[in-house]
Amino acid sequence: MPVSVPFLDLVQSYGDGEKIAVTCATVAQSGWYILGPEVAAFEREFAAYCGAAHGVGVGNGLDALRLLLLASDIGPGAEVIVPANTYIATILAITQTGATPVLVEPALATLNLDPARVEAAISPHTRAMLAVHLYGNPAAMVELQAIASRHDLLLFDDCAQAHGATIGSQRLGSLSNGSGFSFFPTKNLGCLGDGGAVTTNDGKLAERLRCLRNYGSQRKYYNQLAGWNSRLDELQAAILRQRLPHLDQRNAERRRLAQVYIEALQELPLQLLPYNPQSVYHLLPVLCRDRDSLQAFLKERGIATMIHYPLPPHQQDCYRHCAWAQRSLPLTEAIAQQELSLPLYPGLTDAQQTYVIEQIRAFYFGP
Ligand SMILES: *Cc1c(COP(=O)(O)O)cnc(C)c1O
Predict the structure, then answer these.
(1) Atom of ligand 1 minimally distant from the CA of 194
(2) 160 CB under 6 A from ligand 1?
(3) 287 and which of 62, 118, 198, 271 could share a cystine (Cβ 3.0–4.6 Å)?
(4) Is residue 111 lining ligand 1, measured as CB closer than 6 Å?
(5) Ligand 1 pocket member 161 (CB < 6 A)
(6) CA-proximal residue: ligand 1, atom 2 (nearest)
(7) What pLDDT does residue 367 have?
(8) Strand, coil or helix: what is 315?
(9) Which CATH number fits domain 11-103+112-245: 3.40.50.2300, 3.30.1330.20, 3.40.640.10, 1.10.3720.10?
């Protein structure tokens, strides 16, 4: 019986330390560290993987979303429809442009943006929807695309938890006006620091993003836009190039583990999303009323879990003065009270997973 199950063990999960060391040495020896051949190659390879025409590497996932919105002229006066139960970065990306988030409660069957509720949230100021594929589970992009064209709105998606997830036979990253990705170390495709990218089929948008991430300059020392400094660096791009070919295999392993959890926990008094082969299971969320005592019970038995997320964006201190945040959002608030994420990562052993399942059963039924 394993004595401990970490929530995530990145070193063990990737097991590519030696190759990383070689990659780092090669980039170090190249003498070129910002906006060079590694970033250009990764942008091409990642866009191709997503089935998108263009990829633009940026500093992190928040910047990917923020620059995507800014490059699309989203700013003060614009409303952006977004799921209320997302990670704070999705909302920060909107508020940092000066636009107003319009929070929509999720569909309980997916915990993602609910197309039925989206239509009701559209106003004359609505410019865009920003869908989030939370926990790796793809949002209803086909329905959202239909709403976007019916109401002449832009559709963006936050793919920070969903590298490789699919709708039908298409991967996310090519199914909206622009998609933001994060390569934060814990994501399904992670580097050894901060990193992000935007993928899009819109060549003009990609060009604006390349300009905005680099001080608003296309030609060195000439600035047509007042831009930012937010670039994926050569070292991270080289590491991501090394890891991208393994992403599908790693996602398949996540799906296998998810399926085992879902089948084994089905009979227990907790809620699980039905198994979805299109999801990439960045996380395995369960909803349960006695979440805090279950978490403490598992912790005592050496099993680490996490809560995604304990306080929804509209209840965060940073937004307490914002009119749009003065809402009661019962579903979102209930999810924050009940959500618990179980250990799930490529490299989690069958013995570890069996132990987690046994201990959850023991919490409800005794040993
Ligand atoms: C991680 C994450 C982000 C932000 O990515 P960073 O690279 O950490 O800035 C945005 N949205 C979601 C849903 C995320 O999980």
Answers:
(1) 7
(2) yes
(3) 271
(4) no
(5) yes
(6) 160
(7) 79
(8) helix
(9) 3.40.640.10
pLDDT digits (tens, 9 = 90+) for 129-167: 999 999 999 999 999 999 999 999 999 999 999 999 999
Does the beta carbon of 196 lie inside 6 Å of ligand 1? yes
d(CA 325, CA 146): 27
CA of 160 to the centre of ligand 1 (A): 5
Instruction: Please identify, by atom number, the ligand 1 atom nearest to the C-alpha of residue 60.
Output: 7
170-219: per-residue pLDDT in tens? 999 999 999 999 999 999 999 999 999 999 999 999 999 999 999 999 99
Ligand 1 pocket residue status of 90, Cβ below 6 Å: yes
Phi-psi region of 221 (alpha: psi -120 to 50; beta: other; left: phi over 0): left
Q: How do the domains of the chain map onto residue ranges?
A: 11-103+112-245, 246-365
CA atoms within 13 A on the CB side of 274: 2
CA of 323 to the centre of ligand 1 (A): 24
What pLDDT is attached to residue 226?
Answer: 94
**Binding site membership of 158 for ligand 1 (Cβ less than 6 Å):** yes
- Which residues on adjacent β-strands are paired with residue 340? 286
Phi, psi (deg, nearest 5) at residue 293: -75, -35
Model pLDDT for residues 258-316, shown as the tens digit of each residue: 999 999 999 999 999 999 999 999 999 999 999 999 999 999 999 999 999 999 999 99
Would you state the structure tokens that stand for residue 200, as one six-digit string? Answer: 């899009």
Q: Is the distance from the beta carbon of residue 230 to the nearest atom of ligand 1 less than 6 Å?
A: no
Q: Is the pTM of this model over 0.90?
A: yes
Whether the bond between 222 and the residue before it is cis, its omega within 30 degrees of 0, is no
Q: Tell me, what's the pLDDT at 64?
A: 98
Establish whether residue 180 lines the binding site of ligand 1, counting it when its CB lies within 6 angstroms of any ligand atom: no
Q: What is the mean pLDDT of residues 332-356?
A: 98
Joined together, the tokens standing for residue 315 give 């209840």
346 conformational bin, left if phi > 0, alpha if psi -120 to 50, beta if neither: beta
**Domain 246-365 = CATH 1.25.40.20:** no
